[in-house]
Structures are given as structure tokens and as C-alpha cells.
## 1
Amino acid sequence: MTTFWMFIALVVLIGLIMIWAPHFRQQKLLQAEETGVRKQTNLELFAERLTILEKELHDELLDQVEFEALKKELEINLLQDMQQKGDDSLDVAIKSKSALWPVFMTICLLAISGYFYQQLGAYNEITNPPQASNPHQGMDAAQIMAQRVQMMEARVQAQPDDSQAWFSLGHAYVSANKYDEAVTAFDKVMELVGTHAELLGPKATALYYKADQQMTPAIQAIIDQSLALDPQDPSTLLLVGMNAFFTAHFDKAIDVWQMILDSDRDDVDRTALMNAIASAKMRLGEDTSAMPNDTNHKAVTSNAKTVAIEISIAPELADKVADTDTIFIFARSTQGPKIPLAATKISARSLPTTITLDDSTSMGGDVTLSSVQEVEIIAILSKNNSVKPQSGDVKGTIKAIKVGDNAALTLDTLVQ
């Protein structure tokens, strides 16, 4: 911007020089011409008067002394006239009159320059400077993720043999909940570079999310294949530990996650792993499985960071409820991997009831309930005290609720 204004100032300066330089040059010429005319006139008058004095001396009208005195006086008057600069009032009048035109041209130059800059330049940007550029301004998380996926898709289309681009696209598909596309992307990477544990782990993870976090024989086979290639592959071990945690095998989850820490890999989030291990150890010390009891946790003070859920059972399924049943309720983000952010459990005998999910019911990871804007709520009435829905259990969901709101959830789906 400084360079631009320097350029503008230079252009205006050149324009002013072109206007005023001829004016000052003309003034000098006029003054020189006026001075020459004045000198010539004075000389002619002096010569004329001297001729008259010489004639009077010749006619003896003047003696030599008088002639010399008058001649001396003429010479003095001539010298004074030569040194006189002229009538100052006349000069001021001439200059004032002659300066009107360059003054008018200067005003026109500045006015026209300002007008065209306002119409064609960046006047609005200067008077109303924009805020810092944000390519994602006004976009929600889903739109940002969709944009990211589109950019990566364009990259692999331009470079179909770029294995790293396909690998990044696969992870983007997982974050966007496009699990079939993610599996295809990871298969493409293996087609390009061969089968490796660090590719089998992400593929198994995508299939695990697609199966609603159920460990199927096909997924287990991929895990076994990955661990046979690299027993310490972090992506595969993370999946094994996560599944162990969700099935209340906390000791196994701790051992698997600790194995990742002990491997000294620099491509893992060690803080998140340590938090997960601490959470598993806490759950391991409780009487029942994976979640804190809603009656024991401390409520947070800000409603903007909580989700209040009123839970009830559908009338037609009321006969399926026993006092020994346990209800597990957890929230997970509607965007990205379907990992629970907060969870709690209550006894089925308390139905209907209202529970609150907040950061005090966190599952121990870095991402907490208060860090997202919208979550999905899932409740499972379990007959065997397991968070994994099994035949005979009753399930209910809320597809989306903003953090800070409250809603009603009805257990209305019998798991077959």
C-alpha cells in the first residue's frame, strides 16, 4: 500500500509540474521583456534630452558649467531608472491574473484524480477495511469437511498415482463418515505401494465405524493380518484398544494402549493415549463397566456446555424392562469419527428420568463435549450390563442435538 501511494503522489507531482512550470517560465519571460523595454525607453529619453542640452549649449543658451550640471543630472536619473524594478502594484496585478489558470488546472487535476480513484480504485476497501481473511468463514463443520474432501478428490484425480494423496483422502472420508469410500481409498493405496500394516489398520477402522462399532469376523481378520505384519502398528492397536474399552475389557485396553506408548513412536498423540489409559484405569476400579454413574458425577455450572436428556421407555416395550437392567447413554459428535465424547449409566428402575451429559462425564480423550457444537445421543437398555447392544436390548437415539439444549429420548427399538 505504501508503494501504491508513493506512485500516486509521483503522478500528481508530475502533473503539477507540467501545469506550473510553463507559468513560472512565462512570468520570467514577461519580466525580462518588461525590463528590456523599460531600459530601451530610458536610453532613448536620455539621448533625446542630451541632444536638446547640446543644442542649447551650441546656441549659447547654456554655458559649459550649466551644461555639465544638467548632463550630470540626466545621467543620475538614467541610472536610477535602470535600477528601478517597476511598479509593484502593476506586477502583483499581472501575477494574480496570470496565476488563475494554473490554479484552476491544479484543482481540476486533484478533483478528477480523486473521482476516478473513488470509482475505479480501492476506496471502499480503505474506508471499510475487510476483516482478516478466513476461507471457512460462515461455514459449519460439515461444509468445511466437504470442502476438504473435494479438494483431496481433485488432487487424486490430477495425480492418480500419488499414494500419499489417496491415503489422506481415505482419512478424510473416515472423518466425513464415508466409510465405503474410505475403504476404497485405502485399497487404492495398497494397490500402489503394497499391503502394509499402517494401511490395514485405517481400513479396519473404517469398516469398524461402518459396522456401528461392532467387531465382525471380517474386521478381526484384517486386524490379525495387520498385526502379523507389524505387531506394534499404532493405527491397528488403537482400534483394538478402543474396541476393548467399549466392551468393558479395560485391562486389555490399558495393555494395548501402553504397548503403543512403549514403542516410542513419534506419529501418535501420546497425551491422548495417556488420558485414555487413565480413563480406563478409572473405569476398571468401578463396580460396573465403561461409564460413570449419572448420580455420582458433579454437574457443570454452564448449561451452554451440557446436554440434558429426558429418557423414557416406549409403552409397548415397558414389559421388556427389569429392575436389574442398566441403561447406557452416550453422546458422540455428528461430525468426524463416531467416538463417544461423554457417557453415563443409570439403573432401569429410575425410568423415566432426566440425565445430564457434560465434560465431567468425558470418556477421557482430548475432545470433550464442550468442544463441539452438535452431538448424537444414543441410549441402550442392556440386559447383560454391556454397552454393546445385543439381542433383547432396547435402543433409542436422537440424531442431532446442539450442545446446550435439552431433548426427550424414547427407548423404542428392540434389538434383534
## 2
Amino acid sequence: MSKNGLAVVGVGGNSLIRDRARLTVPDQYAVAKETCGHVADMIAQGWDLALSHGNGPQVGFILRRSEIAHKVAGMHEVPLDFCGADSQGALGYTLQQNLCNEFRRRRLTRTVATVVTQVVVHGDDPAFEKPTKPIGSSMTKQEAQERVEKSGWAVAEDDDGRWRRVVPSPYPQRIVELDAVKKLLEAGVITITVGGGGIPVVEDEDGNLSGVEAVIDKDYASALLARRLQADLFLISTGVEKVALNYKKPGQIWVDRMTAEEARRYYHEGHFPPGSMGPKIEAALYYLKYTGNRVIITDPANITRALRGETGTVIEG
């Protein structure tokens, strides 16, 4: 074990995209290179690391390509669990290669491995009865109705009057490849795992696994990983330097530190909406409940400063 211990660091999928004008793979690679420089700073300081990442935009791109290829060329469509696996491989490759290049530049003798990770969810999770997570391309109402009848999709209308497919977002229960991740970390390997929250699978009574059309929140999966690894630190890398109360509203207040009890109270007061900071606070509280350690929330560029206590939001039990 390194001198600082083990940290689980969650990188958001959106944080690999600078803006809507720069969405290409080379654009994402360039942003990942910057992020990996900040992650390498942690490793140089003596942290062992399990790195997780989001994949929301990237899975959306895969689905869009699949839908266009199906419509134009009659190609088979890619199931959602395979889209998750594809994105784990591609983003794992991107982060892994950039980290290896950064280590070589710094003359750090560390290795990196990506683990394509399955995460078990309960088939009777209430989320399966009420799909809410929009994915894929926008559609007209007629196209959406055709998909409902032909493919059994659940659909919902968005704020622009377009229609999107919606899928369940069940809670993660078990990381299938956890033992492999542990062995890699024990061997000193920087490990990229539970990408995009993990590939959602259900388990039958004989222990057989099968993929399901769903998505898992990557913050919840990262918190589960941090809990099961008994990580010394859970660092959530997101799009803002600090957590705020009344975010983008009159009276906005940046928060440097808060206890788990304060975070829970602010959450119930509505300061952390479901579509933004809410899942991150929920994930932080879950991890703190089972470990009593420390959570830091900040953006990639400020990871080093946050570790020194100069910025970011620290939440402690």
C-alpha cells in the first residue's frame, strides 16, 4: 500500500467533453490527457488509485450511430448493455494510454489496467417499473409510437416537444469483477473500473448473469466500489470547483467543508437537484455511512489543490 493509501476517483463522462463544438474522439482524447495529468499528480504524491468514469455522452453517440446505421443500411442495432461495454473499452483505452504516457514522461514506474466491469442490479428494482433516464436520439411523436409498438420501448417527451427513449436506472448491488480489481490494486496496478456505472446485469437463481437494458448512475457505482474497497478517500471529479448552496440562484454560497449531517440536511432542503449534484451527494453519504472516511468534490484541474485543502468541498462523517 502506498504512503497515502487508496483513493477511488470518479471522473464524469461530461468532463471529457469541453463543449458542444468539440465532440470528436480526438477532442475527447485531448481533454482526457489533461485530466490524466491531474490524476498522475495524485499518484506521484503517493496514492494508489481505482479510477472510474462516466459514459453518458459517449453511449449516446454509440446509440446514435447504431440507429442511423439501422435506418440507412439495415444494420443490426446495438443493445444498450453492449453500448456500455463498448464505451468502457474505448474510454478505458483513452484514460489508460494517457496515464501510461504521463507516467513515462514523469519516469514513474506504474502500470494501468482497464477492467470491463459488470454490476449486478435487482430485477425487481422499482426503477424497472418507471424508466426515467433518456438515451439515444430525439424522435417525432410518430417515430416514438412506432418504437413503442415495434421494440417495446418506453418513451417520454422532452422540454423541446421531441421524444426520447427512456430506460431504468436501478441501484448497483454487487460488482462482479471486484476480486479482480482488488488483486490488481494489491499488485500496485492503477485500475480503471465500473466505467459508466458498470454494465448492468441481473443474476438468476443459478448465478447466471445476463445484461439488461438499463443504465447505472456512475456516482452510485463509484461509491459502492469505494465502500467495498474500504478506500481511504472518495474523490468525485465533476464540472465545478466546489459544491454550492443555491447554485446559480440569488444568494449562492460556495461550500468548503460540511459534515455528512449537514450535507443530508442541505440535500433534503433541495440544494442538490437530481440532475446535477444530487447523485454525487447521495453517493458521498452512502460511502461515509460505511467507512467514516473523507469525500472531496472538485473539478479535474483542481484535484491537487483540493488534496492540499486549498479548494474543493470536503465532506466528512
## 3
Amino acid sequence: MSMFENIGIAGLGLLGGSIALSVKELGLSKRISGFTRSPKTLERAISLGAVDDGLLNFEEFIKDVDFVVLSAPISANIELARIIGRQKPSLLFTDVGSTKKEIVKMVEDFFPSGHRFVGSHPMAGSEKKGIDQANPFLFKGKTVIITPVSNCSPSTIETIEDFWNKIGAKTVRMDADTHDDLCAYTSHLPHLVAFLLVSVFSEKMDKPNASACIGAGFRDTTRIAASDQEIWSEIFLSNSENILNAIEKFKEHLNKIEDMIEKKDAQSLKNMIEKIRKIRSTI
């Protein structure tokens, strides 16, 4: 049974396209409309059956939809949310950005009390990008963090949670500050480290047979270094304070292990690695 008459997906990349395909697969909306500024992307999304129709103008796009998922980069999502606030402040909508503090604060300040926005962050994705990588089962069994906003209408949180649950995800509620702090360690810092590992190795790539020394460990650890530069530069800057704190903490741990190696302190190294191994086995 349909939840909505017409869902609008704003941003038709990997996440937006996957949401659209999930909605289509499960029949959660009678119609799915897409918004993007790229005519080619819109044409491709329609040809793949991800959306039924679409527009290149956001003001026109939101006129006939009853629920919008903002799936563009973080700064674009915030600007699109402002347009909703000016033109259709009672519209039900969420975003799928990887940071939450900025958009939550903007909505709290910009929208009237009783608005219908709740932030969402699906802990799902890929280093791949684009509508052609979209997958209707991307969210099945995954966690979506829900970041409620203080002045939203009471039923909004339940409606957004119900939407994610219906496409197979589990939802967890969390305030925006806590979300951004934790994700700096579990997502943003790991991506930064992966980028830097590739950067460091690039200085050795001209050595004969350098590629022969690349094994599963390097490939697995750096897979996410193939991620989109626009998305990740925005994430790093949007969550800069938390990421800088995480970098400082990482430096502390790096300095400790550097000291152990310099001193050839085998026992301390073994103890540290074993401690970390046990922690990792519980994750």
C-alpha cells in the first residue's frame, strides 16, 4: 500500500537513485518525481525507471509532491531546504547528508514551529557514484540515523522512521551534535586516512614493480579512497571541528605506536595490537 501520492527525490546520484528504486520496488508511492540540474542525469533516471518524471527547476518540482528526500551534496541540501521554507514550509521532507548540525540548525532558525523536517543519515553507500550505480536493496538491513529537530510537528519523526523501516532499514534516533561527533570517528576520519594512505603510496608508485606489492590489505583499506571529491570535501568542511578533534586523537595514537617502534618495544606493540584486535572483533 502506498504511503504517498508523489515522492520527490532531489538529487539523483547513488543514494537518491537507490531510494527511488526502493520506493518503486515496494510501491510506497503512486508516483516518483526527480529533481536534478543535469538534463542527462534526469533522462537517465527516467530511462532506468527510477523516477516517473522530473524537473530541472526546484521551485516547480516541489509544487506537486507530498514528500521530498534531499539527496544532493550538503550545501545544496541546505539551500533547497531554504526554498522549501520560503515556498512550501508545511511540506514533509528529510535529507540524507552525512553531517547534520548545519541543516538542523538552519531548519530550527528558518522554519516556523510545527514544520515537517527530520534529518536522516543512511549508514549505507559506496565509493561509486551516479544513478547507474543505484541499487533498490542498498538500505536493506542497514541503519539510518534519525536526527529530530526541536520544533517539528510530533508525527513527523514517526512518519520518517516508518518510511525507512518500510524500505528495509533500521532507525536510531540521535541528536545532530552527537551524530556529527561520532561520525567524525566512524566515517569521516576513516575516509581521510584512506585518502592519505593512497597519497603516501603515490610517492612510491614509480618504483619498479610497486604494484606487485599491493595486496588485499591495501586494497580493502583504501577502497573508499575512490569516493567522490565533491561530496567528501563538503563533509570535511561541514564537520570540521569534530574532524579536527578526531585528527588530533589519531595523532596521539600514531605517536604512541611510533614511539614503540622506535624503541623496538615488542611487548607493548603486541599488547596494543591485541587490545585493538579484541575491540574490532566486537564491532
